[in-house]
Every structure is written in structure tokens, then in C-alpha cells.
Design brief:
- By secondary structure, the protein is an alpha+beta fold.
- The chain is 33% helix and 20% strand.
- The protein has 13 helices and 18 strands.
- The strands form five sheets. Strands 1-11-12-13-16-10-9-4 form an eight-stranded mixed sheet. A three-stranded antiparallel sheet has the order 5-7-6.
- Strand 14 and strand 15 form a beta hairpin.
- The chain starts with 14 loop residues before the first helix and ends in a 7-residue tail after the last strand.
Length: 415
Amino acid sequence: MDRGDAPRMARVPGIKKIKRGFIADFANMNARRAETERLFEAFRHSHFNGGVHGDDVFSRALDFTGIFNDDMAFIGKLPHHLGNEGIGEGGFPRSGPTDHKGVLMFSNGEAQRFGEPVVPDFPIPYHTEIMESFDGIDMDAAGRVAGNGFYYLLGNIARLHEAVLAYARDFMINKGFTYVIPPFMMHGNVVQGVMSFPEMDAMMYKIEGEDLYLIGTSEHTMIGRFIDQTLDESKMPLTLTSYSPCFRKEKGAHGIEERGIYRIHQFEKQEMIVVCRPEESADWYEKLWKNSVELFRSMEIPVRQLNCCSGDLADLKVKSCDIEAWSPRQQKYFEVCSCSNLGDAQARRLHIRVKGKDGKSYLAHTLNNTCVAPPRMLIAFLENHLQADGSVTIPKVLQPYMGGLEVMVPTHKKG
């Protein structure tokens, strides 16, 4: 890209007016957020198209955000996230995430709990110790083979891992979703369409010398399937459930509770995907997170719904919530599912449109949610089903996937 073609901060219309002063009302705050989004989009465009001035644009965007630092508390860290409640004409945000009453959400908040969180009267070991009691994990060997963040699962623990995935697959099929196994790699133009550059940089593994990235979640290639397509309105909504391995760099330092299999470079996931008409997406958002609750409660795991405020939303999301499972050992909840409504943001980038009965086309809305993502969710499973003698009970819904096994008995106990 020639310097004359590089996106420049000076080209952003209205920037001088925005710099002169700010009125702390929502309309002006939204306008300032939209201008900031333009700058980061300019950086993303320059980076992906080989521009040498992408970092310069990025730096200018960061400088510009300093002018209205207080406003940015509304939408959280930059550039990791610019929260929005839908995309207006021109592809820019209209407003911030709201609760069910339409009130803007400035902080994360627990919405409701499902199931009674129980703390047993016996100590619960760390999850890798529970697995080791079944000869079910070997992280030392994985470290020698691949480094930190990898694992070998063995025996009944490996079987449990696959049983949970198979059960989640059938659970979603019984909800009317179509089962899909997608590509596990994707081209750079699909990456651009499904996520922001900062998220990509923190997550994605690139295949050296090729225009291919390993997926961090099957959502990426599931939505990418419809790139440059015009879909038939009569076939909406598309309700899909996909299986894939997932690969993530997981940049950044993590606490001691995230060792073991909590935060790893490779895992497997069953996902829910919906492509629908704009007027349907709010209802589908509610249905998707409720599917997660029903799934985990059927496995006798207490959960809660945690609404994500604007500052905690990632990439292009309109609205998002986490489903968190109860950890009896830590006596707190931790994330096991993330449900998101992306409005028409991904559809706009990937050019996914729907053709109506009147012959006119419009942008689709996309949503995604985690069904299960073992092995992390096995932490909650093992802790909530652990018995005082070290055995682990298998709930009825999983027993057919475990060959009828009702209780897993440890092969040895640490003294």
C-alpha cells in the first residue's frame, strides 16, 4: 500500500469538532465511539492488506481515545473491544448493551442462578489430582511432546470427555439443530470478517507460508461458510451445531487457578450457531443461553447466568452473557459457556445477506453459544460429582455414553 493510500486519522470527518469538547450525553458518546471504531478499522484494513502504516494508524487511534478517556470506561479496554448494540448504516455502532428493560449495562452482573451450589463436608482436590486418581491425565508427557498448555487424557477421563461431547451433540440435534463438522482452518479474509485484529493476534495460530489460520472456535468457519452469499429468507433461521478442535495462543499471564486444563492451547468444543433475520436475533439470544443452562442442569451441575457489560464485550458483539458453573473447591463460579449476539456485524464484513419475499436483500444477524468445551468443563463435572471416597458419579443422561457406567472408581488414591 502506498503512503497516499494508507488510512489516515486526518481523513476521519468531524474529528476537529469532536476534539473541541464533549457533552456527556449518550448521543455524543456514541458518536465518539463510532469515530474511534473507524480508526481501529483503518488499522485493521492496513494490517491485513500489507500496509506499512497500520501501526501508525493504531497509535493515532490510541492517542485519540485519550481525549475522551472517561467515555471509554463505558465500553472498556481499547482496542480489545468496542461494544455496540447493533450496527447502523455505514457499519458503525448505534448504542451500548442493555438489560432486558433497555437500561444500559455499565458493569457485569449475575442475572440468575440455576441449581443449588453445594460445598461438601470433605476436601476437594485440584482437578488434575482428581484426574490422576483415575490415571486419567498425563501433562508431564504432553509437556515433553508439545510444551505447556497441552495434555494427554486417558481411560475413563478420556471416555468422559468424549461422552460429554456426544451428549451435547445429541442434545442440540434434539433441539432441531443440524449437526456440522466444519473446516478446522480458514483464510485470512474470513478471519477479518469474524473478529477484530487484536482478538486475532491474541488467539490465532497462523500456518507459516500459507494463507491459513487454525480456528479458535468453530463459529469462525461456520459463519465463514456463508461469505459472499445471499440466503433465502424462507429458509431462515439456520440453526446449526458444530463440533471442532480449537487452537488458541492464549497470550498473557494467568493465575494459579488457571493451571492444569483450565486454560490450554488445544481443546474440543460443541457449538451452537444461528443465522437469522434481524427481528429474530433477540429471541434466539435468549433461547441459546437457556439451552446451555438446560444442558448443564441435566448433568446436575449448578450454573448461573452472568450478563456482560459493554466494557467486557469482545470484538463485534452486540450482547453477551456467560454461563458459569459452580466450583465446590473454589466456592465460586467460573465460565463454561459464552453466548453472543453479533447483530449484523459479521454479516456486514463477510457480505452475508438475506433475500426477502419482496426481492430486496438485507444483512443477516449471527449468534453463537458454547454447548460444551471440554476438558475445562470437566473441572466442574468432576468437582460436583466427586464423592468422599474419591469416586465420581455419572448422571443418568451420560450413562448411555459411558457404556452404562454409573460410578467411576479411582484406580489409586494419593496418600
